Amino acid sequence: MDIEFEGTVHRWRNNEGIFLVSLPKDLSDDIKEISEGMTNGWGSLKVEAKLGSVVWRTSIFPDPKTGCFDLPLKAEVRKKNNIDEGSEVKVQLDVLGF
């Protein structure tokens, strides 16, 4: 399942050291519907993400407060793309296993 979306980088409210970008609500709803019963711990799904020229494997996690999936951005990804809190990013995402 290949997805492309844009979002604003923000910090996780439970740990300011973790940077995230949220998938749009409608996209998150579609993923939840399609992946029902197939998620891992905490409702996560394995993905391959691409931001700029950096490709990495990670997981997306549902945020119960917003209803959106969040993609964590590793320090290496942020550094190579000059990303900080508030940056607007365009992400290509492949939800694995579909």
Key attributes of the depicted protein:
single chain; 98 residues; alpha+beta; Elongation Factor Tu (Ef-tu), domain 3; 6-stranded antiparallel beta barrel; 6 strands; globular
Report on the architecture of this protein.
- The chain is an alpha+beta fold and 98 residues long.
- The chain has one domain: AF2212/PG0164-like (Elongation Factor Tu (Ef-tu), domain 3), CATH 2.40.30.
- The protein contains two helices and six strands.
- A six-stranded antiparallel beta barrel has the order 1-2-5-4-3-6.
- The longest helix is centred in the N-terminal third of the chain and has 11 residues, at 25-35.
- It is globular, with a radius of gyration of 13 Å.
CA radius of gyration: 13 Å
| Helical fraction | 10-25%
Mean pLDDT over the residues: 94
CATH class: Mainly Beta
The oligomeric state is single chain
In the CATH hierarchy, the architecture is Beta Barrel
- Under CATH, the homologous superfamily reads AF2212/PG0164-like
Task: Characterize the largest beta sheet: strand count, sense, and whether it forms a barrel.
Answer: 6 strands, antiparallel, barrel
* β-sheet strand percentage: over 45%
Q: Do you know the CATH topology?
A: Elongation Factor Tu (Ef-tu), domain 3
Q: What is the SS-derived class?
A: alpha+beta
Distance between the termini: 6 Å
The rough form would be described as globular
Low-confidence stretches: none
How many β-strands, per DSSP?
A: 6
The helix/strand order is EEHEEEHE
Tell me the count of domains.
1
Counted by DSSP, the helix tally is: 2
User: Which sequence of strands runs across the widest sheet?
Assistant: 1-2-5-4-3-6
